């Protein structure tokens, strides 16, 4: 039996912290030892942005990994199941969560990723790439100036997710209000915090910033309970 693993990042990684590789290094450390990890970037949420993909390829150069990019807007991969199963890590970029899910379902990538997850391919991502693995999430997919609930994730992880919990001013208040009004309980991650799930259970919260953290949110009698989770800072303590 292999472990099914997901690393859900509230913010950080190569696109937000180009000079701080701690979260990406942690992700690479989860891959099988003995060879360079095969890491595939999926930039669907950004409309397959060329610039985003170029940043990924520069950050995951041949000294660190065997890096590839899976485009669906200009698709060249015929057999998605086989391609995804060849990877050690699938790294999903940020952008529009709702559009990401719709495009994945049209192409059948949702099914391919679910199969790969159960066979030990590590799934990871930032922002939309955090949201997509849960049953529900908070997203700006429908209004770049506002936030809305999205009860339409892949459901590989139970409950809901909220990235950028401290990085965008509306996130915390919106998520708290949703949780209190019956939205699925779930996890909020600040920028620089990543939640590591193994076989569906949260096994670690790691951070690239000393003060970054994550929270478990549940409804309370009048306001939601916001429980800070134990974290491990990946850098050298100051």
From TrEMBL:
Keywords: Hydrolase, Protease, Serine protease. SUPFAM superfamilies: Class I glutamine amidotransferase-like. It comes from the Bacteria. Gene3D superfamilies: 3.40.50.880. Residues 219-238 are annotated as: Disordered. Residues 224-238 have a biased composition (Polar residues). Coiled coil: none annotated. InterPro entries: Class_I_gatase-like (IPR029062), Peptidase_S51 (IPR005320). Belongs to the peptidase S51 family. PANTHER family: ALPHA-ASPARTYL DIPEPTIDASE, PROTEASE S51 ALPHA-ASPARTYL DIPEPTIDASE. This is Type 1 glutamine amidotransferase-like domain-containing protein.
């Amino acid at each position: 039996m292999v472990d099914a693993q997901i690393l859900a990042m509230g913010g950080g990684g190569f696109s937000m912290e180009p000079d701080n590789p701690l979260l990406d290094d942690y992700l690479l450390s989860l891959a099988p030892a003995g060879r360079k990890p095969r890491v595939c970037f999926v930039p669907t949420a950004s409309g397959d942005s060329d610039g985003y993909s170029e940043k990924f390829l520069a950050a995951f150069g041949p000294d660190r990994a065997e890096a590839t990019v899976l485009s669906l807007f200009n698709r060249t991969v015929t057999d998605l199941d086989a391609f995804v199963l060849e990877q050690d890590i699938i790294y999903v970029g940020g952008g529009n969560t709702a559009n990401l899910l719709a495009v994945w379902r049209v192409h059948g990538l949702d099914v391919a990723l679910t199969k790969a997850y159960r066979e030990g391919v590590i799934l990871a991502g930032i922002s939309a790439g955090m949201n997509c693995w849960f049953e529900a999430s908070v997203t700006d997919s429908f209004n770049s100036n506002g936030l809305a609930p999205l009860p339409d994730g892949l459901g590989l992880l139970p409950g809901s997710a909220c990235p950028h919990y401290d990085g965008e001013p509306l996130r915390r208040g919106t998520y708290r209000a949703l949780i209190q009004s019956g939205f699925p309980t779930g996890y909020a991650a600040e920028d620089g915090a990543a939640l590591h799930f193994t076989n569906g259970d949260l096994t670690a919260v790691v951070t690239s910033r000393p003060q970054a953290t994550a929270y478990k949110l549940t409804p309370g009698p009048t306001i939601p309970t916001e429980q800070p989770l134990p974290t491990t800072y990946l850098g050298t303590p100051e």
